[in-house]
C-alpha cells in the first residue's frame, strides 16, 4: 500500500500524493480546465496527465527536486536558476493561450481593496502598507501580453542538476505580464535574480519586478493567513515587504 501524503489542503483545493501520482481536487473546474490546456500547449516540460474525473485530476510526478522553498535558502546551483530563466523565456516567446488574464484595472482594484483591508484590520503597520503600495505602482502600467504561468513559485519549478525537468501547477496560466512570472519565481530570493536573468536574457525592467514583489505580497497576506499559511515566517511575504522599507 502506497503512503498517502497531503501536499496542500484548504477549503478551495487539495493536493494528495500517492506514490508517484498527484491527485488534485479543486472546487472550481474552470481552474482545472485551464491547467490541463496550459500543460498541453506549454513548450516546456510539464507533468503528464494520467486521468481526469472531476473534481479530481491525476498527474504523474515530475523527476528532480524543487528549485527551493520560500523562506529557506535554495541549494540549487546558479546554472539551475539560469536554466529556469531560459525555460521562462521559452514560455514567454510561445504563442499566446486563447484565454485572457486579469486586466490592469482588475489588478489595481484588488490591490486597493487588499491595502484597505490590511489597514482596517490592523494586519500590517500603516507605513509598511503605504510604502509598498507606492512601490507597487510601477507594476500598474500597460504591458505586451505573453504566455505566463501565473503562479511560478520556486516550489513549482523542478530541476535535476542544472536542467529543468518540469514545471507544475498551471491553473493560473494566462496572457499576462512577463515581469510577473520573473518576480514570483524570485520572490524572497532576490539574490538569485541575476542568475535567472542570465538564462532569461534581455527586455527586463528591474523596477517592475521589484514592484511585483510588493504587489504580490500585499495581495497575498490576508489570503495566506485565512488559509492556514504563515506570511510572517522568516523570509516570507512580510519580510519581502519589509525589505522595501
Automatic annotation (TrEMBL):
InterPro entries membership: AGP_Transferase, Aminoglycoside_PTrfase, Kinase-like_dom_sf
Domain Aminoglycoside phosphotransferase stretches: 40-202
Stretches assigned to coiled coil: none
SUPFAM superfamilies linked: Protein kinase-like (PK-like)
Domain of life: Bacteria
Pfam family, any one: APH
Protein name: Phosphotransferase family protein
Amino acid at each position: 500500500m502506497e503512503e498517502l501524503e497531503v501536499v496542500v489542503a484548504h477549503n478551495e483545493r487539495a493536493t494528495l500524493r500517492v506514490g508517484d501520482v498527484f491527485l488534485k481536487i479543486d472546487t472550481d473546474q474552470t481552474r482545472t480546465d485551464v491547467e490541463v490546456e496550459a500543460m498541453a500547449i506549454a513548450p516546456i516540460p510539464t507533468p503528464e496527465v494520467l486521468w481526469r474525473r472531476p473534481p479530481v485530476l491525476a498527474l504523474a510526478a515530475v523527476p528532480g527536486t524543487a528549485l527551493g522553498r520560500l523562506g529557506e535558502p535554495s541549494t540549487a546551483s546558479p546554472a539551475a536558476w539560469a536554466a529556469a530563466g531560459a525555460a521562462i523565456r521559452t514560455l514567454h516567446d510561445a504563442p499566446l493561450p486563447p484565454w485572457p488574464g486579469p486586466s490592469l484595472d482588475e489588478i489595481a482594484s484588488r490591490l486597493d481593496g487588499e491595502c484597505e483591508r490590511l489597514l482596517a484590520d490592523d494586519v500590517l503597520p500603516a507605513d509598511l502598507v503605504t510604502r509598498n503600495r507606492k512601490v507597487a505602482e510601477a507594476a500598474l502600467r500597460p504591458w505586451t501580453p505573453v504566455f505566463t504561468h501565473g503562479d511560478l513559485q520556486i516550489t513549482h519549478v523542478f530541476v535535476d542538476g542544472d536542467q529543468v525537468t518540469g514545471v507544475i501547477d498551471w491553473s493560473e496560466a494566462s496572457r499576462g505580464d512577463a515581469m510577473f512570472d520573473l518576480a514570483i519565481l524570485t520572490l524572497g530570493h532576490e539574490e538569485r535574480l541575476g542568475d535567472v536573468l542570465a538564462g532569461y536574457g534581455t527586455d527586463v525592467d528591474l523596477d517592475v519586478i521589484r514592484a511585483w514583489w510588493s504587489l504580490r505580497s500585499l495581495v497575498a497576506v490576508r489570503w495566506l493567513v485565512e488559509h492556514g499559511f504563515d506570511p510572517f515566517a522568516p523570509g516570507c511575504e512580510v519580510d519581502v515587504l519589509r525589505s522595501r522599507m
